[in-house]
């Protein structure tokens, strides 16, 4: 799931990656809201809240929402820089290593959630998770050439509406039938991703109610196992172990 990139990926691999990481993201996002009352990956809602607080002159609250958005952006930036460095060095497992970094930081954040008390706990948990969601979303965006997103559902819900509309036109003969197969594949990907996010969020809240911050360690273990399997594959699979220069996008 974390080895092939872009056109080398199959629909099945994309669905496996999307459902696994969307389930983890859903669990973390929903449990964060249950625990501290903030969403860590919903940047649309956070920017809207920021604008609301700014309009009302509530500068302190507005600043916090701004830092949530900034943390998400910084996570995506760090992810991109690490991937670019790895690809320039021909590191075939760079995507897996970046997910392993997310898992390691999630262990630290889980400890913070368990041991920090008082008002300081809320910004640590929210900003930490927002940073990690940005990091994760950048990984799956890069490896799938933007076909997969896992930390939020607005774009995927839009895609589902577009794909359903296209399939209706195809059914009435208004669009070429040859496009039906790829559209159905994308529709399945987006629908399963949203379902995984929903199921993950539900399970995440239930587990957080019982286990508290240990949920973050469970999520970290899932990510670590996923990354470890990908790294093992890069060492054992035949073929090229390094990216060729022609594999690098022009902006690297």
Overview of the molecule:
The chain has 252 residues and is an all-alpha fold. The chain has a single domain, classed as Growth Hormone, Chain: A (Up-down Bundle), CATH 1.20.1250. Helices cover 74% and strands 0% of the residues. The protein has 8 helices and no strands. α1 runs parallel beside α7 (180-211). The chain is globular.
What is the helix tally? 8
Which stretches are poorly predicted, pLDDT < 50 over at least 5 residues? 238-252
Structural class estimated from helices and strands: mainly alpha
Assigned CATH class: Mainly Alpha
Any descriptors?
Growth Hormone, Chain: A, disordered C terminus, about 75% helix, about 250 residues
Produce the secondary structure layout.
Layout: H1 11-36, H2 43-55, H3 59-88, H4 94-115, H5 121-143, H6 154-171, H7 180-211, H8 214-236
Helix pairs in contact: 1-5, 1-7, 1-8, 2-3, 3-5, 4-5, 4-8, 6-7
Question: What's this model, at a glance?
Answer:
By secondary structure, this protein is mostly helical.
């Amino acid at each position: 799931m974390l080895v092939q990139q872009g056109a080398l990926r199959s629909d099945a691999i994309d669905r496996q990656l999307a459902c696994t990481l969307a389930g983890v993201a859903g669990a973390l996002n929903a449990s964060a809201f249950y625990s501290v009352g903030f969403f860590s990956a919903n940047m649309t809602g956070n920017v809207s809240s920021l604008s609301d607080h700014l309009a009302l002159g509530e500068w302190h609250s507005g600043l916090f929402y701004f830092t949530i958005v900034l943390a998400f952006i910084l996570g995506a930036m760090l992810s991109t820089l690490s991937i670019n460095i790895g690809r320039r060095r021909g590191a075939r497992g760079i995507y897996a290593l970046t997910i392993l970094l997310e898992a390691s930081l999630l262990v630290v954040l889980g400890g913070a959630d368990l041991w920090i008390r008082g008002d300081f706990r809320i910004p640590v948990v929210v900003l930490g998770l927002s940073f990690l969601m940005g990091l994760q979303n950048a990984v799956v965006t890069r490896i799938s050439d933007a076909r997969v997103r896992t930390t939020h559902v607005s774009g995927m819900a839009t895609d589902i509406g577009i794909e359903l509309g296209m399939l209706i036109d195809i059914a009435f003969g208004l669009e070429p039938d040859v496009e039906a197969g790829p559209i159905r594949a994308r529709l399945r990907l987006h629908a399963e991703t949203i379902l995984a996010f929903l199921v993950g969020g539900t399970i995440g809240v239930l587990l957080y109610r019982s286990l508290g911050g240990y949920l973050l360690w469970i999520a970290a273990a899932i990510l670590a196992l996923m990354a470890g399997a990908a790294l093992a594959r890069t060492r054992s699979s035949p073929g090229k172990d390094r990216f060729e220069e022609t594999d690098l996008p022009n902006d690297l």
